[in-house]
Amino acid sequence: MTPQPASTRSSAFGIGLLIAGGMVLAGVDASIKLIAPTTPIGEIMFIRGCCTLACVGVLAMARGGLKMVRAYNYRDQLVRAACFVAGTFLFIEALWRLPLAEANAISFLGPVLVTAMAPVFLGERVGWRRWIAVLVGFAGVLLMLRPSASGIQWAALFPLAAAFTGALADLVTRRLSATDSPTSILFHTTLAVTLAGLATLPFGWVALDRVAFGIIVGIGLFVFFAHWLIVEAFRHAEAATLAPYKYLMLVWALIVGYLGWGEVPDLLAALGGGAIVASGLLLFKWAGRS
Hints:
By secondary structure, the chain is mainly alpha-helical. The protein has helices spanning 8-35, 41-62, 74-97, 100-107, 110-121, 128-145, 157-176, 182-198, 210-236, 239-246, 248-261, 267-285. The protein has one domain. The protein has twelve helices and no strands. Helix 3 runs antiparallel to helix 7, helix 3 (74-97) crosses helix 8 and helix 4 packs parallel to helix 7 (157-176). 42% of the residues are buried.
């Protein structure tokens, strides 16, 4: 059967879900930024991962039991999990070294990197229009690196590397989704992040007070809730309809960064972030065109 286009009411509901998911993720990023300077990244990953795994387990049992988390393509599951482990370390590091809006803006380079790497990894053809969008995105990153006679802003390389690992994970997911369920993919990725965090225990964890522990537990629960909202949004509205609203997360990051830390982007950060957003929107607009 041919899928019917989403109704106006359904699309509006999907947009609302996506906006809510972005707001929750902005709060999650702010919480990580708050505790990351005093809490080892691996410890954050482990506690957060345990909470998220519990949520995934409940979801799996509600949808059919353990068969929902069964893996068929172990190689791609492992590659995707490794990308997410690396990306999680890098992005948490970026959150406390950079303003929230800058870290999030650079992380949105992911779709641009996917487009640039698709010809090599997936054999897809990328037309000249989308190559223009890719170049606009890379120009935005160069602006945010702030090249000058004294060097570049090295901290910006953390979210850039996280965007790269995220793009690799997206490419692998395209193949993996043909054999493994979304619940299985989420479970194995979360399990890998949790175990990677646990592996850092010998390198020194700290004793957490109730507030810090509660914040990390809340991060784990709200990460799951935010991604559930986003997944549900795509059930109610088409990707092309939702695409522009994804970038509202930058607005929430700006607001939270200003209220929490007094962060105000300078001119280069604003121009660079704007270029990255523009490149992402152009890719959505020109998808499938030469």
